[in-house]
Amino acid sequence: VRPWEPSPPLSGASYSAVELSGDATRVFMLDQRLLPAEERYLVLDDAALVADAIRDMVVRGAPAIGIAAAYGMALAAGAARALSPADFRGAMEVAGARLVATRPTAVNLAWAVGRCLEVVGTSADHAGDERALAIARLARQIHSDDVAACKTMGRIGAELLAGVGAVLTHCNAGALATGGYGTALGVIRAAAARDRSLRIYAGETRPYLQGARLTAWELARDGLDVTVVTDGMTAHCMQGGRIQAVVVGADRIARSGDVANKIGTYAIACLARQHRIPFYVAAPWSTVDLATPSGSAICIEERAPIELTHFGDRRIIPEGVNVYNPAFDVTPAELITAIITERGAFAPHDVAQGAKAAAGGGARHDA
Ligand code: MRU
Q1: How many Å lie between the centroid of ligand 1 and the Cα of residue 90?
Q2: Which of 32, 178, 251 for a ligand 1 pocket mutation test, highest count of atoms within 8 Å of Cβ?
Q3: CB of 286 closer than 6 A to ligand 1?
Q4: Which long-range contacts (CB under 8 A, 24 or more apart) does 69-72 make?
Q5: Beta bridge partners of 41
Q6: Which of 92, 128, 133, 347 is most buried when burial is the number of CB atoms within 10 A of its CB?
Q7: Catalytic residue list
Q8: What is the pLDDT along the chain (367 residues), one digit of tens a residue?
């Protein structure tokens, strides 16, 4: 049973990574750690629990953790609604700092919390319930804007995939990683809607297996033609002519057009260049961070060794051996064919031009 029923998820799909209850007192999260074996939703009634869930990968993917953080802020606002304006502001800052500290690479998280704090700044003097309502309204807006952005990226990106027989994606940049529909998978969904013969390769994405567990789950559920390969098989598949394009998501896009995304993305971009295959990045404008000049300034999250040392409950690396577990890498702009956003597709070095494109609210870094 989906806990928010009878209303459908905000995206209109049959499942959702994260939703806010109608009265804004509970956040529902599909526990992605259990997929594909089990479809279970957690019900969270406290911003600190939302922060823990983001850190522990119940919800993941740059836009989805931004939306989850905004919903966490809505819970914090509800809990603080009886406080004085100054104490309300203080409580919201504490909740925001806790949420932002969970995962450092995806800029969407800090972006969403920053937008909520702006509203706190303008509404702190209003009556308690009004302040809390304003945050909940903004959080839902961030969610629905993201779904709309994914659909627009899908339309733009599908043009670029016209005539492609098979496309490779990495990690999960789908409905599970966004408000719904997906960024890279949104492009692939839209392309597959035009050409049902499109084949999709999903890289398994060691060590957390987002490709094998989540991308395969989503695409198979849609009845699309998906094939999982291990990350080490990419070169062989490209060499054999099995893949004609790559589309991935992003966690942060620097002003230079360098892109941080799931570990292994850079290797795929190098292979795509070697085999003269176009390499596309699809991400909403909330992932573009014009305040970060280039990829070398992006903080790369390192995660716990246990993600490498163990496969499920079983240890696969001998006791006492060192492991290194960076969760993301940076693909240099020169390896990227185009960055697809809801504001258009840009040559990577020109991504800052998107700041000038009129696209409603939400672009924190507009120059
Ligand atoms: O560690 P994760 O699963 O949060 O990493 C997710 C990715 O790297 C995605 O490719 C990225 O966030 C884009 S999601 C639309």
Answers
A1: 31
A2: 251
A3: no
A4: 69/99, 69/100, 69/109, 69/112, 69/113, 70/112, 70/113, 70/115, 70/116, 70/138, 70/139, 70/142, 70/143, 71/18, 71/19, 71/20, 71/27, 71/139, 71/143, 72/27, 72/47, 72/99
A5: 30
A6: 92
A7: 251
A8: 577 776 789 998 989 999 999 999 999 999 999 999 999 999 999 999 999 999 999 999 999 999 999 999 999 999 999 999 999 999 999 999 999 999 999 999 999 999 999 999 887 677 778 999 999 999 999 999 999 999 999 999 999 999 999 999 999 999 999 999 999 999 999 999 999 999 999 999 999 999 999 999 999 999 999 999 999 999 999 999 999 999 999 999 999 999 999 999 999 999 999 999 999 999 999 999 999 999 999 999 999 999 999 998 999 999 999 999 999 999 999 999 999 999 999 999 999 999 987 544 333 333 2
By most ligand atoms within 8 Å of CB, the mutation choice from 108, 172, 218 for ligand 1 is 172
Check if 178 has its Cβ closer than 6 Å to any atom of ligand 1.
yes
Pick from 15, 65, 64: which is nearest to 41 by CA?
Answer: 15
pTM: 0.95
Q: Which atom of ligand 1 is nearest to the CA of 106?
A: 12
265 sits in which H/E element: helix 265-274
